Every structure is written in C-alpha cells, then in structure tokens.
Amino acid sequence: MRHETPLTVRGCTLHPGLLEPAEQAALVEAVREVVRAAPLFHPETRRGQQMSVRMTSAGSVGWISDRRGYRYDARHPGGMAWPPIPPEVLAVWDAVAGVDRQPDSCLVNFYGPEARMGMHQDRDEADFSMPVVSISLGDDALFRVGNVERGGKTESVWLQSGDVVVIGGDARLAHHGVDRIRPGTSTLLREGGRLNLTLRVAL
Ligand code: SIN
Ligand code: MN
Asked: Which of 15, 74, 110, 201 could anchor a disulfide with 130, C-beta 3.0 to 4.6 Å?
C-alpha cells in the first residue's frame, strides 16, 4: 500500500491511491470468489423500488434491503451464509481504521454505467465509535458528502480505483452518496463498472 497524505472531505478521510494496481487486482479476484459463493442481487427498498446497484456481502452478517426494510442478516436472500471477508480486504481495514476491532461485514456494491446511490447515513450498526471503511475499485465515482443532519452544504470528490475513504469520528453519521460513475475510466474490471467495498463493525 502507498500511504500518501490523506485528504479530508467534510470530516471523512480520503486516502488517494492507497491501493497499488496489483493490490486492486487481488481484491477483485477475492471479490469474484465472494460473488461465486453469494451472487450479486438487486435489492428492493421497503417501497418496492429496485436499487440501481447490485450487491452482496461477506462476513458474519450482510446488509440487506427488501420489503421488510433494511437490516443486517446472517443469510443471503438465497438462504446461504455469507462467505468470510477475504484477508486482502481485512488488511485494508487494518491499514486505515485505527481501531482494535475488525469488521464483521463487508458490503459489495456493483455499479453499472447507470447506477447511483442516493444520499443516506450508515446507521444500522450498533457502535458508531467504529468507523466505516470504503474501498473503490474500477470506474471513477462522484462521491458526495454532506452533514449529519439532512440537507445543507455538501462537498463532492471523484473517487478513483484504489482510493479508500474512512467515514469515522464526527463524520461517522454524515450523509453521503454517489451521484454517478464515469464509465470507461478504468480497465480493472473486465466488464467495466465500479465495485465499492464497505467494511463495517455491524454488531
Ligand atoms: C455506500 O455508501 O453505500 C457506497 C459508497 C460508495 O459506493 O462509494
Ligand atoms: Mn453508505
């Protein structure tokens, strides 16, 4: 890993280019294994709208959304347990999280050319003193960070493949989202698109 000076985006810490190309490729391979065991699915919101990302998880629990609402669940919607979080992914957490626990959940979000993620808070976890670590792989994404309260000023930054963001401290409950991706900006994924890995201590 290449530790350059981190940047602060409204209290979130951005480590630009933390992951070298070979490390990014190894993470993609590890994610492919996860997806083989626990296939990507299109989650629905409580209102029955399909989210534009496809997702799956690794770890003892995975984040799911369906007509019953949002929650961490020990099982994939297909009924199987989630595969373990790959060691290459845990190593990224260890490098930047700065806490003495490891994550029990790794959300895998796949963004096709039209996918986006509306502004939201990560607040389904039990302990907000634990940070969220977010790894970007593949195409660039326009990441927006706002405030703990809804609305107000926001700041946007293009995340590139190999960038890692830590959402912690006073920004732990900051609203954030992805306005769009820029298709064709990375050759890391054979089929194009973007993978985001979100590591959390959920329980
Ligand atoms: C998320 O907040 O769930 C995803 C953020 C990202 O894709 O960068
Ligand atoms: Mn989030």
From this structure: 201
